[in-house]
Amino acid sequence: MRVYSDAAKEHFTNPRNVGTLSEPDGKGSDANPSCGDRTTITLRVSSGRVSEIAFRTFGCTAAIASASQVTELALGRPVDGAWALEPADVLNALGGLPPDKEACALMAVGALRAALLDARVRT
Amino acid sequence: MRVYSDAAKEHFTNPRNVGTLSEPDGKGSDANPSCGDRTTITLRVSSGRVSEIAFRTFGCTAAIASASQVTELALGRPVDGAWALEPADVLNALGGLPPDKEACALMAVGALRAALLDARVRT
Amino acid sequence: MRAYFDHAATTPLDPEVADAMSRVLRDVYGNPSSIYSEGQTARALVDQAREDVARALGAAPNEIVFTSGGTEADNLALRGTLRARAAEGDGLVTTAIEHHAVLDTAHDLAHEGRARVTVVGVDKHGRVEPEAIERALDRRTVLVSVMHGNNEIGTLQPLARIGAIDREHGITFHSDAVQTVGALPLDVSRVPVDLVSVNAHKFYGPKGVGALYVRTGTRIATLQTGGGQEKGRRTGTENVAGIVGLGVALRIAAAKRAEESARQARLRDRLIEGVRGRIPGAVLTGHPSERLPNNASFCFPGTQGEALVVALDLAGFAVSSGSACTSGSTEPSHVLLALGLGREVAQGSLRLTLGRGTTEAEIDALLAALPPIVARLRAVSAVPV
Amino acid sequence: MRAYFDHAATTPLDPEVADAMSRVLRDVYGNPSSIYSEGQTARALVDQAREDVARALGAAPNEIVFTSGGTEADNLALRGTLRARAAEGDGLVTTAIEHHAVLDTAHDLAHEGRARVTVVGVDKHGRVEPEAIERALDRRTVLVSVMHGNNEIGTLQPLARIGAIDREHGITFHSDAVQTVGALPLDVSRVPVDLVSVNAHKFYGPKGVGALYVRTGTRIATLQTGGGQEKGRRTGTENVAGIVGLGVALRIAAAKRAEESARQARLRDRLIEGVRGRIPGAVLTGHPSERLPNNASFCFPGTQGEALVVALDLAGFAVSSGSACTSGSTEPSHVLLALGLGREVAQGSLRLTLGRGTTEAEIDALLAALPPIVARLRAVSAVPV
Ligand SMILES: Cc1ncc(COP(=O)(O)O)c(C=O)c1O
Ligand SMILES: Cc1ncc(COP(=O)(O)O)c(C=O)c1O
Questions:
Q1: Is the CB of D70 under 6 A from ligand 2?
Q2: ipTM greater than 0.90, yes or no?
């Protein structure tokens, strides 16, 4: 499997933070309408940091790896720092994605921001 | 060279009766307008037989081989027998020609008949 | 361990074919159009291959036109017929489950204004009703194109009945038999089909070479113009080594066919039963019995095809999915949608296609590896099954 | 002894190319469209070949579209351009000495009502005047097609000047460089040409594979529709082994080019001088200096080309003639007629094309064998010279 980097394969095979938190502080989703993929992120905030986070993804390898990666990047970060995460950060952390899969990193970040926004509104 | 039979190759490489008889009893030509090939046969008749014969051909391997073959078949034959020669006789004697070259046997027989006709008219 | 379960995508070259081609590549370089010895040696090989292909199909050698593959054969069949019969009509009837080489060509012809295209649907098993074809015909129909065996779901079509209808109406009947030639008998002296697409790399021959069977008397124009090879029906210097490979591969396939297809069908059934027994919610796609002997295809709701392919690749299995998921957009397979499956179910498609090398041990290894992968992907997605 | 003097018709496979292809045939069977390992191994080989071809032409890899040969490349260039630019115009300007793959395609497009074709003549050496091309252009012209080196007479064309004119007018410029790629440098980063046809079997690569260089930004439609390979520009499963062969062959040819072409040009000059000195009435066809390094072509009035070819074959030499003389009708070569030669002179054409294997001893053997053959055929025909 040369299409994906080792890091992407690792995240895909052993995804981190899979699940849905019950009674989260924030919950957000993003979808790629052109392919039907979607990711939902739930998270909890304590002391201004992302203290718990979980994702669900229906989608391809890149979608799952990106979501797993973004939860790992966000976990423990101050909310502002998590908010500042860019698709490029996900791509870098994954060691890149195939060019036609880069939109998956966008979806992961979109779901994270939606969850952070939800947490900000609620709290 | 598998396209031509051994007999055709032999006649092509060592054509029999090449030339133009001076003051022949009969002289006749035939041409294949679609390819520009042409054959001229000159012959002499004595005691009702083709006693001398010669050909000239501008044309392809099959045209040359057919003309050479038809002179060989005609030489020594009674005039009627020579007249009765068919393209199939030439083809048989040559061991066949490629299908798209069978018209060459027709041209050889055409030139022979033209020469025989000319001899009949003149004598 | 590494196991190849994608024989519908392509097959390994038969070693005998590889040897024959390597010999040609090394020793035979003449141009078949040249009349001197080197050329005629090449010509004789092309003629021999033409005879081999003709014999395997019950055809005459001059009814075989070599092409650069299945795609070109399909394009030649459709474009060539519509052009040659333009004065009679422009109706083209085909089905919703054809390969892109047929369906996209039909759409392109329609787009160009060269064909009125009618696409006939299929039942939930992917079968085309001959009556539905008949209803789609009208006085301007000149061509019907129905594939023999589907490349995704393996469903076989009733060619003989469809062909009989077409013949009655003087309509040219084309069948894309790319997936079946080699695996199932197709005898054009019995089945009333006028044009048949053949593709070497689906039966252990080389990529980039195929053939179109053209029944004597069938009107067809050429796609390419030039030097006039293949009696002007497909011009361009012949791919001599490839054509030799096609001939040898089809000869071998025809000899092995009966035994090998039965063997693969047994393994296929073991695979289908195993998957159904072990994976809840698994949907078998395609016809339960009228299917290619080597095709086992499924949808696993809650998973996405590309992810299944990658996960299985990482586990040592080469497989494929109907959902291509490239260039940023996953179009769920038009074949699966035509069966009436929902888009999301269709996205979780997995095609497992067996071949000569497939063993029972490989089937069992796959049956061990697949359920946890499906379970893991479902856990990640939590899409209710 | 057997000597091959028909390298313009086709060339023997370079042993290194044969080995590379045989390895691929034996070991690499994945479909390049498949994302699992077997597929990506094949994909990597295709990509490597694309880079090799691009580098040899001074192009970028994504400007290379693989085809099934020179004929398809020419058809794609002409048909694809006329279709893609149909809204802008339908004018196609080409020359009287193009290969049939261009000329017949132009005529076919005209016949279909898809192109207005203007055929520009050549001088007695087969050269196209750039000014004559310019005069033939009008506001509806969308494509100019002028070959680089002629396959019969070897004359080279002033591509840079013709390309500059076309570019000025926004007209797509295609060149069939099938005879020159491999033998002469053609750098698309310097020469303003938009489409270039390439054909592996003319430079010691395999038959049945070629390429079209498509400059970035050039509008071109596809000929075949289907699975979408080659970014949709040429669909159909890739001929992986053939493409690898093309890449390796062009890499080798580019490396050998300078030295080998100079060597062949010296032998060619020896052959031309020898023929002229020994055969009365021999007519050299093509340009005296602006010609392919391996081409020596003549007419011998009083002979017929097919007979020359057969006689030389029987004497151990593989050669060819412009007059095909098949199917019962000898069409004298359109190229020779375009030079202004009479039909009967044109019928006595002989093309001798040298290659990497050609030796001085072979040249001298040919120079010994040819004069008596010409003399014999002239004696049989007695056509006055
Ligand atoms: C049914 C069918 N038709 C046509 C094709 C096209 O073949 P190729 O891509 O080799 O030209 C294929 C191969 O995928 C196929 O399965
Ligand atoms: C100049 C030129 N163009 C095109 C072609 C066509 O090549 P192919 O027959 O290999 O498709 C040839 C080969 O004869 C050629 O010499």
A1: yes
A2: yes
